[in-house]
């Protein structure tokens, strides 16, 4: 797994520990917190100043001198994200993509400049799964979700068949870290959890039960198809594309297949924003061509 990963602060998770406590509770806490030695830890994203009307996020002349290992410095970065826009941050490993996501999540504070963002939901690179049932891993917030909603989310991420084939289905127990699932299956389970994480807004396919968050939520996705083979990833992205439409999303990726979903691309190099392009333009296609195929 690349070193440029980020995780949620516990206060940013808004997630109770799994029902089967003990060791898995300790893992939950570890998965949702940063080291206390991180001097740049900021308040959770819900406490970030709100952006201007019609925007989901704003960065104004932001600099970041991070003390966290693996997170690149950011230098004089400015951007705006309109509500309902999908923005892909592209660039090589270490270019600053995950640093920028951490700022938008409220996980790091800018050294200089201003960060404004709506409250966020995230899919970090590190997939946190616990020693509990599939059902409990999908519904960490212990909300009143019926089975139809859980199955619909699993179907959307292409995991329904694999879970349905297990003897206990949704009640199948997983080991620590998602033991019993492949890396790609664990990634898709975490994505399904994200789709179920907030107050329903629109129905998921195949059910009248709503799916992911409120219209005001900002989605932060870090390499969402990491660990999936090309065919599985492409099928997942095709199913996910309609769900992303109309949502405010910042997607960090070095993969062409993921960046192609964006309304706009933003290129980071050595902590600086060096180019951007709008979908449907020659510049957009040129930036896509620079990314890894997959």
UniProtKB/TrEMBL annotation:
It comes from the Bacteria. Transmembrane segments: none annotated. Keywords: ATP-binding, Cell membrane, Membrane, Nucleotide-binding. Residues 57-291 form the ABC transporter domain. One of its GO terms (molecular function) is ABC-type oligopeptide transporter activity. This is ABC transporter domain-containing protein. It comes from Vandammella animalimorsus.
